[in-house]
Each structure stands twice: as structure tokens, then as C-alpha cells.
Design a protein that fits this description.
The protein has 453 residues and is α+β, with helices and mostly antiparallel strands. It has helices at residues 3-19, 33-39, 43-50, 69-80, 86-89, 133-143, 186-201, 205-226, 261-269, 281-302, 308-345, 358-368, 379-389, 395-410, 418-421, 429-451; strands spanning 84-85, 100-102, 119-121, 127-128, 148-149, 158-165, 174-176, 229-233, 246-250, 253-259, 271-276, 349-355. The strands form 2 sheets. The chain has a 7-stranded mixed beta sheet, with helices on both faces. Strands 1-2-11-8-7 form a 5-stranded antiparallel beta sheet. A hairpin with a 5-residue loop joins strand 3 (119-121) and strand 4. The N and C termini lie far apart (105 Å).
Amino acid sequence: MYVPEILETGQFRSRSLLTDSSPLSNATFMLNSSGVAGLLGGEEAMSTVALAQIYSKRKWLGWYNTPGSYIIGKRFQRLARSVISDPHVNPGSGARSGAVHIDPALLLQHDGWSKGPVFKGIYSGTSMHETGPLASLLMKKCIRMFGTKVEGRKTQPVNVTIVELEPNPNLQPQTRFYHSPPICAIIPIAVSLLTCAMCGLYGEWYACSMILLGILARGLTCVFIGSGKLVFHHPKPADGSPPGDGILGCDHDLVLLKGDENVVSAVTRGRFFFSFQSKHACRMVELCSFLLIAQAIAQLICVPQSNLFGQLMFVFSIAISWVYNLWFLSYDKVEVREEIFRSVLGSPKLRKFVFPNRSSAIVSLLLFSSDNEGLPGDPKKLKKIMDGFLPSGSLVWEIWKGIVIEHLSNGWPLRFNDTHWNRQDLSSASDRSLLRTLLQDAETAYAAFGSNE
């Protein structure tokens, strides 16, 4: 007697399975996709797009849905207005050259591609208020090192790193870089394609189309960016130029560059560019910008129209991409920087010292700038270096600088006695005491130089 009821119940359940096209279709909870999109940043995604030029095949590995398309699109708008023609970078290329160049700092603003610290040449007298990004990379590398502590009068410690740059015969005015892409780059692609297919299988066409749009927008952008090359430009020094030794930095971290003038010039004056051979690159940048911004707007409108299952698939695809982008920037970016550093500078010898005060640190820089032929002998240049890093105008400081410069110019050891600080032109006992203290700082620097020469 209960058989017809059982059959009717079974038929009802089968009809409901056929009617419900996707899991969670009866859920009343709706996911606020716009809020989730706001939580996931686009700076990481921007960096992974920009680094596509460094990898030999990475432009084909950008086909996945990713957060931050609106941020990337706005950045590309700025990029389109900053394209540099080839004659401005390569004066000898001619006006007919169709190549264009883009400053990578516009795409990698938060990744350390900024300008480097100030530079003061010891022999040439060159003074630069800002240097290239390679100097910034070198400075960060020196700051992370552990140094040998030098004993002496303690005030505020100053780090001094001696960088002996080796000649690089393969260093050209234009250098390109290639790097193998990571194997796990296939993960976000597989997840995006799988979630897109799942949405299509269950009829979640809004979510399916938005994931597919995200895949196409990012993929085409990576293909365009990857069609260019990351090129390093640096001016060739003139024949007969003086040695390029100089001091990078200020405050409490100083770096002495020693080596071939061509390599020092690459550190201080070199710049990176994204180089494109097509003269239509500017239009392609504008097209990518429009596509990315349109994708962001379309996703905000269409994704909420999907059921909960489709929204979850969409969020899952961008979440996996976001995690991959974070991993990429924390791991691969370091490898890329090291590869670029080695390609230009090779393996320079680095020695770091932590001096107890600034006066001994500056004297040590002048001592370590010596070569096999002796110490730099131009008193005016030595005085200019000391004035740039130490107080000037005070009688005691000027007398101390004169004594130290006299010893350096003549190649005398920095050893002093009471005849050097008991001077008749210093009537105050406190001035003579300060001069004695400063001369002892110079002796501290000389002792450190002698033990590590």
C-alpha cells in the first residue's frame, strides 16, 4: 500500500536533481564578491606581470584569473604616457628606429627598483645626488651583511663596506637577462581552467565567463609585456678617464666602490629598460589597460549575478592566484635580482666593518681607497670628500682635516703625538682635547686598515 508513495517520492527527488543545475543553488547566502576583491591586492599581480620579460618563456604562463586587474589597468595607463623613443636611450640608433623603451620602475614601484643613494667620486670629483637601481641593489646587499666590529671611541656606529669590483669584459652597453620560469607556475593556470570548466559544467555562466575573461585579459597582457626584453643601459666612460673609485651612501651606511671605471659607471649610471621593437607598443599598452579595467568592472557587475557555487569558484581561482603571486615575489624575485647582479657585477669581493664613530669611518674610506701605487694625493679632492661627510667650518675640525690630509697626501702613517694637538692656535683646553680625540679616531681607522690591508 506504500509502494506508490515511495515511487512518487523517488520521482520527486530525481526531478529535483535534474532541475538544480549546480551545488548550493538553494542557498540564500550571497557572497559579496566586491568586498573580497577589495581585500586582495593588485601590487603583487602587477609585479608578476612585469617580471614576465625576465623569464624566457614566462609570457606563456600568465593565462590565469588574478586579482588586482583594476590596479594593473591604471598602472598601464601611466605606462602608455611614459614610453621613451629609442633615440633618447641610444643616441646612435637614428630617428627611424621603431624601438621604444619603458622604465620598469613604473611597474615595480614597491620592489626596490628605485634610485640608488648619493655617490661621491674620490679621484674624479664626481658628485651624484642619485644613482641607478643597480646601486640600490648593491647598497641593500651590503646592508644585509654582517661586519667586523672595530674597537674605539663609541658614539654612533657607522657601517663601511669595501666593494672590490672585478673587470667584466662581457659587460656591454646593452645587456639582456634570461631566467628559467618556476615549475609551479602551472598551478594557478590549472586552477583557473578547472574552476572555469566546473562553472560551465553546472551552468554557472556568469562566473564561467568572468573567470574566462580574467584568464584572457591577464594572458594577453603577459604576452605583450613578455614580447619585450629587460635591457640594461649604461654609458661608456671616455678614454683616459680617472679611476672611478667613490663612496656610495650617507648617514650610517657607506660603501666604497673600487674597480674598473666601466663597471663603476655601470653601478652609478646604469638604468634598466623594458625594450620593445614594435613602434605600436604604446597602442598595445593602451589596449591592455582598457581590457584590464573593463574586466574589473564586468566582474564586479556579473559575478554577484551567479549562484553561490559560481561565486565560490571565482573567489577560489583568484585566491590561488593571489597566494602564488605572494610566493613568487618572496622567492623568485630574490633569484632574479641575484641573477641580474651577477650578470653585471660578477662576484665582487665584499668586506664590511662597523666603526664606532663617523670620523674614523670616513678616514678608513680614504685609506681603503688606496691602490698599489699609493694613496690619492690631491689634497683638494680629499678635503672635498671629508667636507661632504663631516662637519665643516669649526676651527678644530678644519685643523684635524688638515693634519690627516697632510699625512695621506705624503703617504705618512696616521700616528700622532702631543705635538699635533698641543697647538698654539688652540688656546682652549677643550679644543685641544677634542683635537686629540679626533686624531685618536684617525689612528683607530689606520689600525683597522693595517690589519685588513
